[in-house]
Design brief:
By secondary structure, the protein is mainly beta. The protein has one domain (about 20-110, about 120-125): OB fold (Dihydrolipoamide Acetyltransferase, E2P) (Beta Barrel). It contains 2 helices and 7 strands. It has helices at about 55-65, 120-125, and strands at about 20-30, 35-45, 50-55, 70-75, 80, 95, 105. Strands 5-6-3-2-1-4-7 form a 7-stranded mixed sheet. A hairpin with a 3-residue loop joins strand 1 (about 20-30) and strand 2. The longest helix has 7 residues, at about 55-65.
Length: about 140
């Protein structure tokens, strides 16, 4: 019998193999096409928890056609890394990175939410109780200017 998928909330950097059932809620590409390009995405599980995922240039050629925003997948054999970038996309302590053995299988998982918003309490914002290095909202940027 196949094992149940792990929750994003339970990802803690341990070495155990993980399998997650997710929806890609946001997908974007960073870099210049045909030179350096990587895919970045935010995925969500059935509990509404999100995590940042990176598909670097060496893996992107294999996966670019299969990565579709709002589609659902079962994913396993990925690397779990500390999410300690200067700015974080999600508030999860870890991020997932595609490897040569990553499996991403499209699945019809209609119970997965499209997006789940987690609004900060306005009083917490006023008194400064929020994560400074967490990106919020939509923004445009050009890395090559």
């Amino acid at each position: 019998m196949a094992r149940a998928p792990d929750n994003i909330k339970s990802i803690n950097g341990s070495k155990e193999p993980l399998k997650v059932a997710v929806r890609i809620t946001d997908l974007w590409f960073v870099g210049t096409p045909n030179r350096f390009e990587q895919a970045e995405m935010v995925i969500i599980d059935s509990h509404g928890d999100t995590i940042h995922v990176v598909c670097k240039q060496d893996q992107l050629k294999s996966w670019k056609a299969d990565l579709i925003e709002n589609c659902t997948y079962v994913m396993h054999n990925f690397k779990v890394m500390k999410n300690d970038d200067q700015f974080r996309i999600c508030d999860h302590q870890y991020k997932l990175v595609f490897t040569r053995v990553t499996v991403l299988r499209k699945s019809n998982l209609e119970d997965l939410p499209f997006k789940k918003y987690k609004f900060a309490d306005f009083t917490n914002i006023i008194v400064g109780l929020f994560e400074l290095k967490l990106l919020v909202g939509k923004f445009n940027y050009n890395l090559f200017n």
